[in-house]
Amino acid sequence: MEAAGTSVLADAAASALESLAGVKDQVEVVSLPTATDLRPALASARPICVVVDAGCPAAQVRTLLEEVADTAPSIPVMLYESAANDGVAEQLRRAERDPARLEVAHSIPQVAERLTLHVLTGGPRPSSPAAESGRAGRELPRFDGEKVLVIDDDIRNVFALTSALELQGLTVVYAGNGREGIELLKQNEDVALVLVDIMMPGMDGYATTARIRALEPFGDLPIVAVSAKAMKGDREKSLAAGTNEHVTKPVDVDLLLLLIKDLIKPE
Question: Which domain holds residue 204?
Answer without folding.
Answer: 134-264
